[in-house]
TrEMBL record:
<feature type="signal peptide">
    <location>
        <begin position="1"/>
        <end position="22"/>
    </location>
</feature>
<keyword id="KW-0732">Signal</keyword>
<protein>
    <recommendedName>
        <fullName>Lipoprotein</fullName>
    </recommendedName>
</protein>
Length: 337
């Protein structure tokens, strides 16, 4: 009997706590939604500021690691006697097979040096951190901060979660379609974890990658001037080396071999004497070129590590401002499961 009475009480309480089926969520005034929209724009700007601080700190860390590895691995390798000799062989072969193409030798040497720079510096550093990872993390951080602020805004105006989610679903965050999969609402952005599982996010990253200048990666910018200077220096040395080779040929096989070895030894000694100055020049060139590329990677609004964040902010603000200027009713589309 007591058990039956308790069950009846619990059922009655549950009935009181559950709203009638089909009950509508309380409406929100249009003026309130306008305030919400303005506060979302402000929240996006605030999130951008924090994402910029994060990205700059991460890029500074990446730059320090690249500098350290450049100093320890690339510069000693590049300035060594045998590397310079090997590059001389390469430049000679490039020049012989250039078929009259201007700057062919230096361009092909640049490709070789870019490959070496990636293998010796950028790829080892990328095991810990690189600009693409920073870009992804900064975007996720921005979206997470914006979602937190959206919840605060909803609580401030006493807007039920269902209505706030529908409002976020009515705000376009990515608009790169067709197809429709390349578009995403703000609701989809803040409720997708991880972001890279959202097709529209992949479209955004592809959009940013295409906006980058062709061949403008950090390694390209760092190496191009160095390769040009190295190629010109090696080509200028060919006349001296050609005279030594002619002397060796005239002297005969045995003596000629000794002359060749002697000339190589003299070049090695001269090279070691010039090496500190060479390394100082390389260091200066690399630092200047890398700093320029680093700044572009950090700040460029279309292709830098913050480009996805800037795109999202511009799209969200543009969508909200356009609706307000047109005096359109706030969109509250249903969210499909």
């Amino acid at each position: 009997m007591l058990r039956s009475l308790m069950l009846a009480v619990l059922i009655a309480l549950a009935g009181c706590a559950t709203p009638p089926r089909g009950q509508q969520v309380s409406a929100v005034a249009q003026d309130t939604w306008r305030q919400v929209d303005q506060q979302l724009i402000a929240a996006s700007k605030s999130a951008i500021g924090q994402a910029e601080v994060y990205a700059r700190g991460s890029m500074e860390h990446w730059r320090v690691l690249v500098y350290e590895r450049t100093e320890a691995e690339f510069i000693p390798w590049f300035s060594s006697y045998w590397t310079q000799e090997w590059m001389a062989v390469k430049v000679s072969w490039y020049a012989a097979s250039a078929k009259g193409e201007a700057d062919s030798a230096s361009n092909r040497l640049a490709l070789y040096l870019q490959e070496q720079y990636r293998e010796r510096v950028l790829e080892p550093v990328a095991v810990e951190i690189d600009p693409e990872a920073i870009r992804a993390a900064a975007t996720s951080y921005y979206v997470r901060l914006l979602n937190q602020q959206a919840q605060v805004i909803a609580q401030r105006h006493q807007i039920p979660d269902e209505l706030m989610n529908r409002r976020l679903h009515g705000i376009t965050a990515i608009n790169l379609g067709p197809p429709a999969a390349r578009n995403a609402s703000l609701y989809e952005m803040v409720h997708t974890e991880p972001l890279n599982t959202l097709p529209a996010y992949a479209a955004l990253i592809d959009h940013v990658n295409k906006a980058a200048d062709t061949g403008a990666g950090p390694s390209d910018a760092v190496i191009a001037a160095v390769a040009q200077r190295t190629s010109e220096k090696i080509e200028a040395q060919f006349a001296t080396r050609g005279a030594a080779s002619a002397a060796a040929a005239v002297a005969g096989k045995a003596v000629g071999a000794l002359i060749s070895v002697g000339v190589a030894g003299v070049r090695a000694v001269i090279h070691e004497g010039e090496r500190p100055e060479m390394e100082a020049q390389i260091r200066k060139s690399l630092s200047a070129a890398f700093d320029e590329a680093w700044f572009k990677s950090l700040k460029h609004p279309l292709s830098g590590v913050l480009a996805p964040v800037y795109y999202l902010d511009e799209e969200i603000e543009g969508n909200l401002v356009e609706a307000e200027l047109a005096n359109q009713a706030v969109a509250l589309p249903d969210i499909k499961p």
